[in-house]
Amino acid sequence: MGEPQPRRCRPDDPSHAPVQHRRGCRTRRRRGRLTEAPVATPKLGWWWVVAPILALGLLACAFDRILLGGYLLAAGAGLGAIIRLVLPKADAGGLAVRSRLVDVTVLVGFALALAFLTSVVDLRPLP
């Protein structure tokens, strides 16, 4: 004779795989069946303050104003770092990607690198 079956199903029971596959953070039980929960889109928040400055910097670079464009890009990244440092995660919106320390460090490093590279670039034509 075989071993007696347990009363409760084990988590690795293959007959329950379809039901377990649908469980997760984005599903919920509604009236006895599993349905997809609506996915909330994050607010971009203060990201819209930084985006036009970055767009102007890219536009300036596209029209051969490399120094102006580089400094605008550095200023936009620096402003993004300040906003991310000051505001809480809920208000920072699209600027809050990782932890506050990592976000600010990356944005400040990017701003300093851009400002340095823009200041040392030599745009004089070759003889």
UniProtKB/TrEMBL annotation:
<feature type="transmembrane region" description="Helical">
    <location>
        <begin position="99"/>
        <end position="121"/>
    </location>
</feature>
<keyword id="KW-0472">Membrane</keyword>
<feature type="transmembrane region" description="Helical">
    <location>
        <begin position="45"/>
        <end position="63"/>
    </location>
</feature>
<keyword id="KW-0812">Transmembrane</keyword>
<dbReference type="Pfam" id="PF11222">
    <property type="entry name" value="DUF3017"/>
</dbReference>
<dbReference type="InterPro" id="IPR021385">
    <property type="entry name" value="DUF3017"/>
</dbReference>
<feature type="compositionally biased region" description="Basic and acidic residues">
    <location>
        <begin position="1"/>
        <end position="15"/>
    </location>
</feature>
<feature type="region of interest" description="Disordered">
    <location>
        <begin position="1"/>
        <end position="32"/>
    </location>
</feature>
<feature type="compositionally biased region" description="Basic residues">
    <location>
        <begin position="19"/>
        <end position="32"/>
    </location>
</feature>
<feature type="transmembrane region" description="Helical">
    <location>
        <begin position="70"/>
        <end position="87"/>
    </location>
</feature>
<protein>
    <submittedName>
        <fullName>DUF3017 domain-containing protein</fullName>
    </submittedName>
</protein>
<keyword id="KW-1133">Transmembrane helix</keyword>
